[in-house]
Amino acid sequence: MTTALRDFIKNPTTAELELVARYAMQPEDGRRERAFLAFAETGLPHRRMEAWKWSDFKAALKALETPASASANDPVPHDGALVFRFAPTGFEQPKTLPEGVRILTQPTTQALSGAEDVPLGALAAALAGGGARPSTMVIEITSSDLPRLHFVFDGAGEASFARIIFLVRSGVSLTMTESYLGGAGFTAALLEFNLEDAARLNRTIYQRGGTDEALAVTGLINLAANSAAVQTTLAFGAKVARMETRAVHQGSGAKLTLNAAYLSGKGLHADITTHVRHGAPGCVTRQLTKGAVLDGGTGVFQGKFFVPRKTGQHTDADMQHQALLLEDGAVVFAKPELEIYADDVECAHGNTCGALDDAQMFYLRQRGIPETQARAMLTEAFIAEALSTADDSVRDVLLAEAQNWLSS
């Protein structure tokens, strides 16, 4: 099987051959094989793939190597939270769990629908597990009276893979945070959220990585009738980093908010990609993404709303992307899309890229504020709106992290 898979990837790179070798060391599992074949169909995503043309993992990831840079410190508070930690060499979870949280760790892989659409998500599903790490972790939430769940991805190593499935039962609310702190040469995580009727999810993501690291976080969200999900992301990028979310409205009255901010400096690449399918009538989506990029940094935004002819009637959706190019040499790629077949909808999208307002800079400078501080103040005010949907327990932390980056 290893030889067949290796030959299936055309002109495999060293990194792809190493991924094949890692797969060969996993227990035999038909569903794991199907997930890996979905990845092997294209190999590491590259610029000749339309959805990945600005985030070329094949070019960036030559081999699986432990990076020189260590993991960043986690600014998200752990106090009072249930902390789960994933590292290249192991996995830790709370020793005791409150009522309302049930965890099932499985040595086998669960089937992944639409694996071909998320090749690095499929790779995470195929390679998760081994040693003390579960192949699939299923977390069932049956109570709203729970502490925040916090997931940390850090630790030194060549590669780290994880797959987590959340089942949020009817009428229940879940608040969770994630910190992706680098330290591994390649990290691929797949998180799936299944929200039953009237369930609620508030998800906040913090990401940091080095200039010699690759990261892909794939989130899949299924919303039943009258459920609601709010997702807030702050990404600083890595050599190549992609935060991808694919959501499906499966029941009428579902509501989805997707907000993100990316801050990218020299040698760093931050990609925010989303795809929302309005598969039920009367659903609402709000999306706001803001970015700020310095010389040598790259920001990517790709967003798509798909509205079918019959099930997408009465859709209410709005997508906005705004970016600041703070210095010459900053690069931003943006591709907002609406694909609408229904005729009774309210859908809009907008996209702007530019520099800081000269009049506002002049106003602050006239009042004795140094140029660097003035630029930081204006940029912080610009991105703050995108972070306003984060949970109260971490919102100030995200704003402080953004402020520190801007001030430095």
Query: How many separate structural domains?
Result: 1
Shape: globular
Tell me the Rg in angstroms. Answer: 21 Å
Structural class: alpha/beta
Query: How is the largest sheet built, in terms of strand order?
Result: 2-1-5-7-9-11-13-15-17-19
Number of helices: 8
Task: Compose a concise summary of this entry.
The protein has 408 residues and is of the alpha/beta class.
Give the topology, please.
Blueprint: H1 2-8, H2 14-24, H3 30-40, H4 57-60, E1 82-87, E2 90-92, E3 101-106, H5 119-127, E4 136-141, E5 149-153, E6 157-168, E7 173-180, E8 184-195, E9 200-207, E10 214-223, E11 228-235, E12 240-249, E13 255-264, E14 269-278, E15 284-293, E16 298-307, E17 316-325, E18 331-340, E19 346-354, H6 358-366, H7 371-387, H8 392-407
Parallel strand pairs: 1-5, 4-6, 5-7, 6-8, 7-9, 8-10, 9-11, 10-12, 11-13, 12-14, 13-15, 14-16, 15-17, 16-18, 17-19
Antiparallel strand pairs: 1-2, 3-4
Helix pairs in contact: 3-5, 6-7, 7-8
Describe the structure in your own words:
With 408 residues, the protein is of the alpha/beta class. It has one domain. Helix content is 21%, strand content 40%. The chain has 8 helices and 19 strands. A 10-stranded mixed sheet has the order 2-1-5-7-9-11-13-15-17-19, with helices on one face. A hairpin with a 2-residue loop joins strand 1 and strand 2. It is globular and about 70 Å long.
